[in-house]
Every structure is written in structure tokens, then in C-alpha cells.
């Protein structure tokens, strides 16, 4: 089935997406799924939210529909619209409707970016009704078994959770995501890049020092995603300091003083 963003509804994944849990989030999510509870994932960029949802979709054997929210996203973008094709008018489901029909996990990334009049269409799906009203066709759609709504939001960005109405917020079980503890983060880096464990541990140690620079004005701290990217370059033979420069430091800041401080830390870690 085509959705309004032009993408296809992906079938359940056959291969397990690697996800290393930080705590009880897998079990909590499973219980939410079985109890038809919607889930909100809160945490900084690159800390594993998307990977977690992919893993859970695989584990629960559900298709996954991902929607990136932005402030131009309308209710029609989610639900669907009539399209003119040749001399006919045809209805095309939006990604939310496709997910509701298929009993998919529907993941709305950065939900706070969406306008409130868009977000409210989710309400009837998150309570006992589990219905989606499609005004344009007059259809009242009941969610297929297995349908679950998952949203994410990054608390560091300008728009804050307070921008979501309490009536929206209180519809979601909320799981807090942080960067994994050092030993686990190193394990993730090894699994995702194939570099030596000792080198992964050194990269994680460096990341901790860089994260400490937040007090000195570093707006965005290095995520697990950046560590993985750096490690992948190292794994392909790029010299360590060069890889750190392009994949770890340059994406974080343009400020000469901060870049200098970060470069010093790289040189201390990898003399
Ligand atoms: N717990 C984890 N298990 C396995 N891989 C992880 C984990 N945490 C982070 N990663 C790695 O970090 C990368 C980035 O994670 P992901 O894309 O899930 O971040 P995110 O939280 O969705 O970020 P954003 O808010 O920017 O969308 C993944 O592609 C994966 O390589
Ligand atoms: Mg993501």
C-alpha cells in the first residue's frame, strides 16, 4: 500500500536489528504493547530511540511505519487524501491510516515539531476507542490488533514537552533514554563498527570528556551515533585523530575555542 509520503508500508523485519538494552525498556515496551498503551521515548539525539523501535517491531513481529514530524505536517498528511489520477479520484491512505489498518507500530519521530491540530488526531487512537476517524471518507476505522503508537521527542531542542498539551502527554507511557553506561556504549561501538574493544573503550572515554564540555558552552554533546560513525571510519583505516576530527568534533561545533579544547582532548586520549 502506498502512503501519502510516497513510501511503502514495510513488512516486519526478518533480521534482528541489534539493540543493546540499558535497563528494563524492552520488557516495559512489551507490556505496553500487550496492554495497548502508547509509548513516548524521551532522550537526546543519537542515543538509540529509533534503533529501539526497530528492534521492538522485529521482536513483536509487527510492521513499522515511521513518520518524521515537522511543523508543516497536516492531519491529511497523516490520515490521507483524495488524489486525481487521470480522470478518476482515488483515496490514498496516509501513513497513520496505513499503520492503523495493518496493525503496525507507528513511530512519530520528534512529535513536538508537529502542530497541535495535527497531534490531536492521535487522541482517539491512544485511549480505549482505538479508532481513527477519517472525515473525508466518513470512515470510522478501528485499529487492527497489534497497532501501537510510539512517539519520540528530544528534550534538548528549543520546543519543549510543555508544548504538548497535558491531554496529549498523559496518553503516553514515557520511557527516558540516556546515553548507555560506558561498558555498554563500548560494546555497541564494537558491534556496529568491528573495531577493537580497547579502541572502542578509548573512544567512549573521549566521549565522556567531551560531554563534560557542555558546561563550557558545547550545545550538543557527542552521541552514540557519532561514536559509531567515528569508529566505522577508524575500522576502514582512517587514522584515529583524523576520524575523530571529521566525525566527532566537526559535527558538534564551529566555535574555534571549543574545537581547540575538543582537539586537545582527542590528542590526550590518542597520543
Ligand atoms: N542501545 C543501542 N543498541 C544498539 N545500537 C545503538 C544503541 N544506542 C545507539 N546505538 C547506535 O547509535 C545509532 C544512533 O541511534 P538512533 O538512530 O536510534 O538514535 P535516536 O535516538 O533515534 O536519534 P534521533 O533523536 O536523532 O533520531 C544507531 O544507528 C546505532 O548504531
Ligand atoms: Mg531517531
UniProtKB/TrEMBL annotation:
Pfam families: AAA_5, CbbQ_C
Source species: Paracandidimonas soli
Domain CbbQ/NirQ/NorQ C-terminal positions: 185-267
InterPro entries xrefs: ATPase_dyneun-rel_AAA, CbbQ/NirQ/NorQ/GpvN, CbbQ_C, P-loop_NTPase
Keyword Nuclease attached: no
Domain (ATPase dynein-related AAA) ranges: 39-172
Gene3D superfamilies in the record: P-loop containing nucleotide triphosphate hydrolases (3.40.50.300)
Protein name: Nitric oxide reductase NorQ protein
Keywords, in A-Z order: ATP-binding, Nucleotide-binding
Annotated TM spans: none
Gene Ontology MF: a single term: ATP hydrolysis activity
Family stated for the protein in its record: Belongs to the CbbQ/NirQ/NorQ/GpvN family.
